[in-house]
Amino acid sequence: RATDVVVLGAGPAGLVLGNLLQNRGVDCVVLERAERAHIQTRARAGFLAANTVRILERHGLAEGLRRHGQAHSTCEFRSADGRFRLDYGGLGRGERHTVYPQQLLVTDLLTRFLAVGGRVEFGTEAVAVLDADTDRPSVTVREADGRPGRWGARYVAGCDGRHGAARRSLPTGTVRRHHCDHGVTWLGLLAEAPPSMDAVGYAVHERGFAGHMARTSEITRYYVQCARGTAADSWSEQRIWDELDLRMRGAEYGPLHRGRVVQRAVVDLESDVLEPLRHGSLFLAGDAAGLVSPSAAKGANLAVLEAEILADALADDLVHRDSKGLDAYSARCLPYIWRAQEFSHWMIRLLHGGPGGHGGHGSSEGWSDGSAGGASPFHDSLRRSRIDSLRTSRS
Ligand code: APR
What we know:
The protein is α+β, with helices and mostly antiparallel strands. Helices cover about 35% and strands about 25% of the residues. The chain is built from 11 helices and 20 strands. The chain has helices spanning about 10-25, 35-40, 50-60, 65-70, 100-115, 165-170, 235-245, 250-255, 300-320, 325-350, 375-390, and strands spanning about 5-10, 30, 45-50, 70, 75-80, 80-85, 95-100, 120, 125-130, 140, 150, 155-160, 175-190, 200-205, 210-215, 220-225, 260-275, 280, 280-285, 290. The strands form 4 sheets. It has an 8-stranded mixed beta sheet with strand order 6-5-14-15-16-13-17-20. Helix 1 runs parallel beside helix 9 and helix 10 packs across helix 11 (about 375-390). It is globular. It starts with a strand and ends with a helix. Adenosine-5-diphosphoribose binds near residues 11, 102 and 126.
């Protein structure tokens, strides 16, 4: 089978790309390994930046988030020095986030794509991208019934995430992977509990970081820093809530609203960037192009931004025979990617102190006794100074 653009993956990157290509009259197909119900219920990120909302609005994809998203513009920081609120919506460019669970955005994007005639092959796993160095690449697949298949195309867009076929198919020797393991591990939780405050909550504590992020009126995401190698199911619900309450200083600022923990996953904070984002006829976008650690909620936003740039470039080439956008794709995206990396890296150091969250480069001097978040006195002071400047500096 053949089309102009084969899009691998029906996450935010692949579905925004599919919609925008369809809007421009470019023939495409989205191949998705999972079933439809799975992608529509998979809870992941939830914070959309103002620019992301503008992109989605520009292409008629923002109706659901306009109707059901919640405006958000305040973070609360808690530490041994007290607590304060950073109303970032009243600073800088005055931009706010929209809280809209990613599975709802994915559902909106998918519904719209199918409604305008878009094709998605669910249960179809891309195995490899072949002949990306020619202008007739193809994608080998395992179909829903288990049989092998193949899609031919003019271009392939790899939007299939960090473990996808696009990354696996990159030619050796031409791609550079810049990788950083931040040495910090979080236990990420979804709780069937209403939010405990009307802000994103960041708690810096000698026992380690804890975070609170609203999702809906009934569901809240929490993060609690844990030791590297912790198994996701090794903490009891009681221990999770006690630890969250302690680190978020519930005794001083009010206890958290507890509820059933309905999903948990251990995340080692890692980042990478693959350079360049183009390999002949194969283009990377979203997590396939680079991973941003979840500390700053940039991943889904970058995915949408890259998808828009790629859609324009592909349509210019396929509709108007103008290949300048494709040639410039990688160079246009990389500054945004590195900017997001820089912010998320700064955020990690703000919340965890020194490298590894322990403050030392392999030296045990000054560590606190085995807790996940102990920082050396030096790095702890840096962290306090960073938080203090957030409290006092308008810029
Ligand atoms: N073949 C087909 N589909 C695949 C394959 C494959 N070999 N491998 C993965 N997929 C699918 C996954 O099932 C998933 O639906 O590709 C999709 C990739 O989607 P995401 O992982 O959501 O990646 P992306 O669209 O790049 O989204 C980026 O969303 O949640 C945020 O922070 C997260 O940074 C991430 C962002």
